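does this look right to u?? thiamine diphosphate version
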Amino acid sequence: MTKEEKIHELEVFAAQIRLETLKIIASRGNGHIGGCMSIADTLAVLYGEVMKYDPKNPLWKQRDWCVLSKGHGGPAMYATLGLKGFYDVKEAYTLNDFKTSFPSHTDHTKTPGVDLTTGSLGQGISEAVGAALGNRLQNINSHVFVFVGDGEADEGQVWEAAQFAAHYKLNNLIAFIDDNKRQLDGACEDVMSHGKGLSAKFDAFGWKVIDVKDGNDVEQIYDAVNEAYTEKERPIAIVLDTKKGKGVSSVEKSGAHSSHLNKEEWEVIIKEAQDNLNRISGKENA
Ligand SMILES: Cc1ncc(C[n+]2csc(CCOP(=O)(O)OP(=O)(O)O)c2C)c(N)n1
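got this back:
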């Protein structure tokens, strides 16, 4: 397969993740569309190409790990894992129901393939750092990937984890910083500015930093991961310039953190995602 064909396959996968994520959230009626859509392309690159894992053996010791420190992106993770065969993706159409295996925030004890439990912002990156150190101490040759939100990066705990990871030279840890410029209450710049920016901060903490100009472009994300793999000493922060709600035009426009939609509104955005999938996969003219 050529690189061009692989990239196209990943674009299709990202569109499938978006569609399934929306169906999962729609089953509940409300949820974090914006923060799920901004990470769909990176999840597609990870689970479509980069990561080693076994859907039939989610706890395989040699696997790569993926931690959603911004745990409210759970539905995007459930769509990805379901599409890759960890379970039937339709099982996740029980989002947040009583006794469901698919809570709104990712929970290792409930969902096959979810590597760590997250949801209290700031904690997931600390858990990921521990996993990376633990895997290294066991001589496991793998990577731990972790998603951190730009709003989440207001949490002091993120920077304790960053300092620790640099000190222990955890080059098996790759953090994706979902720099979508928005958090729950509005623009990150207005709520709590990151000063010179998240790239400068991770650099100051001793990480290798890779800036991705379009964090919703699978090829740029894929190239960034390959560059990250060449780093021998430092943990790596891939700072993704993303769009909150990417692919859902109404949410892109509003920047909404959590969306409560009525039946008609759900139909409109699910149709948009289905149309996008058809267009990208080339089915619309078939
Ligand atoms: C410690 C903690 N405080 C508050 C929340 C509630 N909360 C959930 S998501 C969110 C905003 C996070 O913003 P960001 O990390 O930028 O996420 P994104 O915009 O990518 O969805 C907040 C405040 C939480 N989950 N944990």
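The pocket of thiamine diphosphate is lined by residues 32, 34-35, 38, 70, 72, 119-122, 149-152, 178, 180, 182-184, 244 (CB under 6 Å). idk if thats expected tbh
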